[in-house]
Amino acid sequence: MASYDDRKMREDSPSDDAMAHEHMGLGRYLATRLPTLKPPMAKAPNPIKLLAMLNLQQWLFFLVAFIAWSWDAFDFFTVSLTVSELSKEFDKTTAQITWGITLVLMFRSVGAIIFGIAADRYGRKWPFVVNNILFIVLELGTGFCNTYSQFLACRALFGIAMGGLYGNAAATALEDCPEQARGIVSGMLQQGYAFGYLLATVFARGLVDTTSHGWRPLFWFGACPPVLIIIFRLCLPETKSYTERAAVRKANGSVTGTFIAEGRVALQKHALLLIYLVLLMAGFNFMSHGSQDLYPQMLENQFNFSKNAVTVTQVVANLGAMTGGTVVGYSSQIFGRRFSIIVMSIVGGLLLYPYGFVSNKRVIAAAFFEQFCVQGAWGVIPIHLMELSPGSFRTVVVGVSYQLGNLVSSASSTIESTIGERFPLPPKGKTKRYEYGKVIAIFMACVYTYVIILTFFGPEKRARRFGVEHDSDMVDAAGREALNRATRRGEDTRDSNDVNGVHGSKV
Fold first, then answer.
1. What share of the chain is helix, strand, coil (3-state, %, to 5)?
2. How many Cβ atoms sit within 10 Å of the Cβ of residue 470?
3. How far is residue 322's CA from residue 488's CA, in Å, rounded to a whole number?
4. How many Cβ atoms are within 10 Å of 484's Cβ, its own excluded?
5. 429 to each of 213, 301, 422, 432, 433, how far by Cα in Å?
6. No. of H helices and E strands in the chain?
7. pTM across the whole model
8. pLDDT per residue over 325-351, tens digit each?
9. Which tens digit of pLDDT belongs to each residue from 361-417?
10. From the CB of residue 220, how many other CB atoms can be counted at a distance below 10 Å?
């Protein structure tokens, strides 16, 4: 086997924006932002051929990650969709109940750090399983809350559990994915969020206030599917990418020592990048929560939509979200990650007026296309973060940047509802009404502007290779000799499998 010298490492690196910016001065880097925004117009097979590139094991990794991420979103939105019922139950205002949303967002960063480090050190499987066990316990606990304090405590703890899943799901689904298929798979994965929102909307209509238990059955039901998700994940192995990194750590003689060394290298070489990712994710989380969390309340309170009309609007909006994420995720493989995000932000901004001001059922069309743009931009994010993250810490960097961004944006629904109450409308009977649509439109215009600016000046590493043999950080942390030994050992194992007829297995 050939040794992995610096020349080989450079040859294996992608040729576009990729690695070059890491060694530029600030002035030169800024000068490259506009030229590198030009779409590369990379050739991409049609989506069916791309998806056919995944073998059975890669499909199973994607499915378990998608299902878990979908149910993670379902559990989160159970509060957003029962704000009115919770307000009556605990005799609190809408703004006070939305602290249940804010606390989840605030504590998710804690879970991302704990479970992200665990997943990068010990593997993807068991932190994933523990996450889902906590979902079961805390969703049941929320359903049995009798006081406002108990409710807030359960949601804060739920935030820790929820925070640990995103980075793990992204790594599980994407790090073994064929390079050409990453864009479309990224878009499909991210739409687990919209799919979970869609499921929550549908089941809320069927389970909330349809029995004597009021809102509680929605939370009790939310605790059930994670049991099946746990069983599914237990049936799958670790990802190939993690296994290769674990082999290098073992070949270096000290697994923990090497892992710590990898952490030092990552901080020394990528500290500014990590700050950038947190700022970017703050904008994206403001984008999603600002456009979604208070929207059902706006439709019901400001526009006097019935519960059925709210449900239909939310379902159509989430169909737009799932379509946008998949289409734009695929397109980012052709046009580039940054270009795709910026275009979706511009179009989304242009749609804010009908999204927040059309007061009849025609708003359904605006909701579809607004969420197409919001989740279209989001569809690029899983693979964009994976490609930018240091190889040894993909789970923790993707998870922590996403969740710290959530922490920064955690008060978005509370901010919107509090400001909205300063714009009262004529009451409907005893129900106070507010002009939430105006606040959402202004809020989102600011968010879109921020995301466009930050993305324009940010880096991109489209087509970056994920294998440990292409990771210069691992060479710095473990040494070239350990990398060569581990890689040679892996090749010997594959050769042995070929001899025994194992290597060709799709599973």
1. 75, 0, 20
2. 17
3. 42
4. 18
5. 26, 12, 19, 8, 10
6. 25, 2
7. 0.82
8. 999 999 999 999 999 999 999 999 999
9. 899 999 999 999 999 999 999 999 999 998 888 889 999 999 898 888 877 877 888
10. 15
User: What mean pLDDT comes out for the span 289-307?
Assistant: 88
Residues 6+ positions from 74 with CB-CB distance below 8 Å: 196, 197, 199, 200, 203, 222
Which pair of tokens denotes residue 354? 């009908």
Residue 486: its pLDDT value, please?
A: 74
| Rg for the chain, CA atoms, rounded | 23
Contact 420, 94 (CB under 8 A): no
Q: What is the dihedral of CA 38, 43, 49, 54, to 10 degrees?
A: -70
Match 């795709």 to its residue by tokens.
340
- Given a contact cutoff of 8 angstroms between Cβ atoms, the answer to whether 429 and 422 are in contact is no
Nearest of 340, 335, 339, 334 to residue 379 by alpha carbon: 340
> What digits encode the pLDDT tens for the residues 251-290?
888 888 888 988 888 888 889 999 999 999 999 999 998 9
Gap between the terminal Cα atoms of the chain? 26
- Distance between CA atoms of residues 31 and 228, nearest Å: 51
Q: DSSP letters of 280-346?
A: HHHHHHHHHHHHHTTHHHHHHHTS---HHHHHHHHHHHHHHHHHHHHHHHHHHHHH-HHHHHHHHHH
| Best CA proximity match to 367, nearest among 329, 327, 415, 315 | 315
Give me 179's structure tokens: 């390079």
224-250 residue pLDDT tens:
999 999 999 999 999 999 998 888 888
